[in-house]
Design goal:
Elements (H helix, E strand, L loop, with lengths): L1 H48 L4 H12 L2 H17 L4
């Protein structure tokens, strides 16, 4: 019985070590993410200080991330919806 118990404890220790490793990696990445988000906020603040509209800058960044075909499809749908509402 002692052999089986020791084996289970060994497996549990390995699993706990692996779990701890995952948790610590995620925590480090979360810290890095917070630092990066703060850096992004500072860039937007600097742009605002130079007279740029931050809301528009954020929209440009979001649009530039999109695939060209997806962007064109979204723009076409937006135009269609606005036209249907008499807004275009």
């Amino acid at each position: 019985m002692a052999d089986g118990s020791a084996s289970v404890e060994g497996v549990s220790t390995i699993a706990a070590d692996r779990l701890r490793s995952f948790i610590e990696r995620v925590e480090r990445l979360e810290e890095e993410k917070a630092t990066i988000m703060n850096d992004v906020k500072e860039v937007y603040a600097e742009a605002k200080g130079d007279g740029y509209d931050v809301k528009t800058l954020r929209q440009v960044v979001r649009i530039r991330k999109m695939d060209r075909a997806d962007r064109q499809e979204q723009e076409a749908m937006l135009d269609l919806y606005l036209a249907a509402l008499g807004e275009a």
